[in-house]
Each structure stands twice: as structure tokens, then as C-alpha cells.
Predict the 3D structure of the following.
Amino acid sequence: MTAIKLPRGRTLHLDDPIVMGILNVTPDSFSDGGNYCQLDSAVKQAQALLNQGAKIIDIGGESTRPGAPDVSLDEELKRVIPLVKALRQSSDCIISIDTSKSEVMRQAIIAGADIINDVRALQEPGAIDVLAEYPDVAICLMHMQGQPRTMQSNPVYTDLFADINRFFAERIAACEQAGIQKHRIILDPGFGFGKTLAHNYQILDKFDEFNQFNLPVLAGLSRKSMIGNLLKRDTSERLAGSLAGALIAAQNGAKIIRVHDVLETVDVLSVWQACKKGITNE
């Protein structure tokens, strides 16, 4: 059984893959930028994602798409902290914060966040120290080659899987040295973060290569350019490709599927699980 202990005595069960719903409170995210910048609309969207079957709400206040401008600490705090507080007051759902700033992490945890989802894998100043202070908060460590603004310029690997797994081993060791227990960690190979189109599909095809650490692995490829560039589809036309990717990742060991389209992804995973387990009662 795979499970992660969370704040307030709760447990995130990951025996079967679960869906993480994306909620960006940014004006410039590549898919849903500007849709949920008002607090009331963001809370309503979070509730809608939960009703559709999301087990985690992942809140982001800074776009990490290639070329996106930096967001100041004050601005990111203004975007995400009121939403965390409002959502925590209205729900006991599992809240994840997509950030790399240590102060955003700290204030989000105080406001009620359960998971820190960091594309920089706790490498920014102070980040690892903050997580060491809160022993019940889970951490998602993502692999990225380069920096978000330039990561897609010319990504090159000596050995794709060996390089990514070496990075994971180093970051896990750094966490443990800081006093962060391994059982709190989730891994994310980082589709689209310093990877070519070929790299992304190699990762999807052999996603189980990241299971060697006996930790939950997250797959986040929803609506990304790896789908758009392959299929020649605009962002709004990438549902079928996203669902295919979600299913393949789940079949290859992904325990958390991070998506925009929660309802459809939950349906796909439910059909797959029914086939795996068999239906005994109609």
C-alpha cells in the first residue's frame, strides 16, 4: 500500500492512481491563464474540480511556461494565500501549492496547504529549510534541466533516464540530510521542462523507470506542447492527447496524474481500473 501522511491527521492513499486538478491563479499560464484570477471564481473552480473527482487541488501563482516573466514574492503571495485560506475554510480537501519561493511555501503551509509542488525541487534559497520545519507536509520534487525561461533552448542528455534518476537521488539525499524523511517525497520527471519532443515520449513510454525509489511518481503532461506539437493541435484541442498520455502514464506506474480536465481523466482511469480489477457487482 502506498500512502503519505498529511497535516491534520489525514492520509493520502495512492494504491490506485489519483487525479490532481490544476488551478492556476495567473494571468499568463499557457492553458487557463486569466480564467480564475478572482477569488470567488477560483474557489468555485476548486469545488467543481473536487466534485469531478480530483483528490488534490494544485494552486499555482506563477507561470513556468517557457519565456514567462518572473513574478515578485508579494504578487505571488497576493494570488495564492487568500485562495488557500478560503479553500481551507470551506473544505478539508488536499491542497497543493505550485511554487519555488520559500516564503510562499511557509505562508501557504500556515494557511493550510498539505503539499509543496516545486519545479525547482527545493533548490531555491531557504526552501528545503522551510519543509524541514513542517514534518507533516508532503513535497513533490520535479526534474528540470535549465531554468523555465530558457529550458527549451537546447536540452541535451548523456543518458535521459540515468540523468533524471541521478538528479532524484541527489535531491532525495539532500532532503534526508536536512531532516526531511523520504516517505514525504513525491517525484515528477518534468514533462516539457528541459526536454525535447522525443525526450518527452521516451519518458512516457518508460515511465516506470522512475519507480526504483519506491516513491509515488507524478505525471503532468495535460495539454502540454508535447501533445500539441505531435498532433498539430491548439491548447483547446488537446483533450484526447492528454487523456491518452494520462492512461499510458498510469499504466506505467504514475500514482498522481496532474490535469486540467479532471472529469474526463477520472472517467478514463475508472474504466482502466474496472478492467484491471474486474466488475463483480453491476
Remarks:
- The mean pLDDT is 91.
- The radius of gyration is 18 Å.
- The chain has nine helices and ten strands.
